[in-house]
Amino acid sequence: MTTHTPLRFVAVGDSFTEGVGDRDLRLPNDCRGWADRVAEELARHEGHTRYANLALRGRRLKQIVAEQLVPALAMAPTLVSFHAGGNDLLGARLDMRTLVAGFEEAVARIAQRGAQILLFTEYNVPLSPVLEPLKLRTAVFNKHIRRISAAYRTLLVDHWCFEKYQDRRMWAPDRLHMSGVGHEYMAKRVLEVLGAAHSLGSPVLGPLPPRSRAEILADDAAWFSRDVAPWLSRRLRGVSSGDHLSARWPDLMPVVLPERLGTSREPARL
User: Rounded mean pLDDT of 244-259?
Assistant: First the structure.
């Protein structure tokens, strides 16, 4: 990805783009994420790169469009990453036609401004066998994302097809967000789609250690009490984990490289 125009990268979306799961206590909202990692690599290889990240956890498509799209486009971005719809797919009731129409309308608005657009398919997150029916919703939504990407000639990161995410170590303990290792690998795949120079490698995870049935059941019980029950409670109360947070990087600014920060970062663990 070589250009003589200063790169203005604006990331729009939900927790996937905010960076949840890639814990970093030095940074806003205590996370880093694939978008930060992509911006860091772009800045190292392309001068005058500017970056903003408006994404917030818990946001559904309508909220992302209402809260993030206008300020994103006001920055006259040259590159916009747009990820939305994942939280809608998790809802008890889903109008797929309305979701797809809203997604396409948002992409059309970005395309009208002449920015390069980066889209993502959704992954079949391995939450629990009980939630396996979500896979069909995700597959249908992904089919539409691929169609929209082709129609508007966007770049597409086909997350659904990345086999490495079948490894549970690519996911945070909540099973919904990528781990630090998962975010780093996503950054690598994004940079490949952009055709950008980078220094990121693929994770070498090794074989998964075997777990007994008792260990699996204990892990499932801990996951339910730690992550699922609070999530269900928020859903019933109509609140989100991101309600009291702000965008991590709300304005276009020079990229903050990690080597220029302090040393209190919690390292990603396999």
Answer: 91
